[in-house]
Amino acid sequence: MSEVFDNVCTPKPCLVGPEAGPELLNEHFGRRSAVRFLRDEKLGGMVAQLTAGDSVATVALRGAQVLRWSSGSTTDGLLWLSPDATLANDKPVRGGVPICWPWFGVHPTDTSAPSHGFARTASWCVASTAVSDDATCLSLQLSESAKKNAHLPDGAHVVFDVRLGRELKMSLTVVNTGVKPIHMTEALHTYLRVGDISTIRIRGLENKPFLDQLSERAGNSEPHTITFDGEVDRIYNNTAGVVNIDDPKLNRTLRVRKEGSQSTVIWNPWREKAERLGDIGPDGFREIVCVEAGNIGCDEVVVPVGGVHRLGTSISMHPLCSR
Ligand code: TA6
Questions:
Q1: Topology of domain 18-319, per CATH?
Q2: Strands 99-100 and 210-212: what pairing?
Q3: Which of 69, 83, 203, 232 has the highest count of CB atoms within 10 angstroms of its CB?
Q4: 3-state class (DSSP) for residue 29
């Protein structure tokens, strides 16, 4: 997944801090039209714009969050992003691919800690960029200031890689440079854009047991594809396989492959929760399905001293599979 990047096992301080402006970032890391850094006026913050062939992705430096991804003629893009998305405050941005780390959901002991960890609102800095014939790559690492967060596991060096090519590949790598094991849960909380949640089918999790977050009880595994007629919030443990999302309205199948991930989360808030959340827009819930690669609950990861763990997900678009 980081075949383009330097060896992340040798943590190095960032050349340029997270507060750098577009000029300095483009001087050090810009790559002609393939990688450009700019202040996104609509979002109110610094982003990297990656281009590879007919694909374009926007990555916010705050939170190392992929926010937009378009490919070919997909006018609406492949990721869903809140109409209220902004980088101009310290709140998590809903949409794109938020990084949930070093815990998923509520903190195991500290009720005052933010949901889904602190990485998605932390400052990240650019470690490297690279362009090859078939991909444009960006590597970010948690900034030195963010590492002062009280919840940072001792000795954790954290790198997030984005590789834009025919598919969108993302990976979160944690290197343990400390003196004790790092225990963590995590997810790449991907918000996929769909034509209509009530018409999609999700294949790949049939007959897999899951935790139903709505009832907090073990749900019965289902022999059939997942379809939606209300809020769905499921954690499938011990699932490392491919998940396909068939979308008849947009006439496409999105494929999610995972690396270093034993948990898969499927979520749609449906209307009532979307209204409570307040940043999904009128009927926005119809265009969202979250298919998240993670390691959650019993799939917790322990990174030994000197060890490395990589969580990866890659998303690709295909003609609709109508079987
Ligand atoms: O991944 C599903 C989930 O855990 C849901 O329970 C819901 O809370 C969602 O994440 C969004 O969480 P957020 O903290 O981003 O509002």
A1: Beta-galactosidase; Chain A, domain 5 (2.70.98)
A2: unpaired
A3: 69
A4: helix
pLDDT, residue 124, reads 97
Looking at residue 323, what is its pLDDT? 58
Among 244, 156, 191, CA closest to 69: 191
Stretch 112-124: mean pLDDT: 97
* pLDDT tens profile 15-69: 888 889 999 999 999 999 999 999 999 999 999 999 999 999 999 999 999 999 9
> Which DSSP string corresponds to 279-311?
-S-TTGGGGEEEEEEEE-GGG-EEE-TT-EEEE
Strand partners, 60: 47, 65
Separation of alpha carbons 289 and 47, rounded Å: 24
- d(Cα 57, Cα 114) in Å, to the nearest integer? 27
Four-residue CA torsion sign, 11, 13, 19, 23: negative
- Residue type for position 57: A
The pLDDT assigned to 322 comes to: 66
pLDDT value at position 9? 62
Distance between alpha carbon 108 and the CA centroid of its chain, in Å? 21
- Delimit the domains of the chain by residue range: 18-319
Q: Specify the pairing of strand 186-188 against strand 99-100.
A: antiparallel
**pLDDT attached to residue 7:** 54
Q: Taking a C-beta distance cutoff of 8 angstroms, is the pair 127, 105 a contact?
A: no
Which pLDDT does position 3 carry in this prediction?
41
Q: Whose CA is nearest to atom 15 of ligand 1?
A: 94
- Phi, psi angle pair for 25, to nearest 5°: -65, -40
Ligand 1 neighbours by CB, cut-off 6 Å: 92, 94, 105, 115-116, 189, 213, 233, 265, 267, 290, 292
User: How many angstroms does the Cα of residue 24 sit away from the middle of ligand 1?
Assistant: 35
Tokens of 253: 């199948």
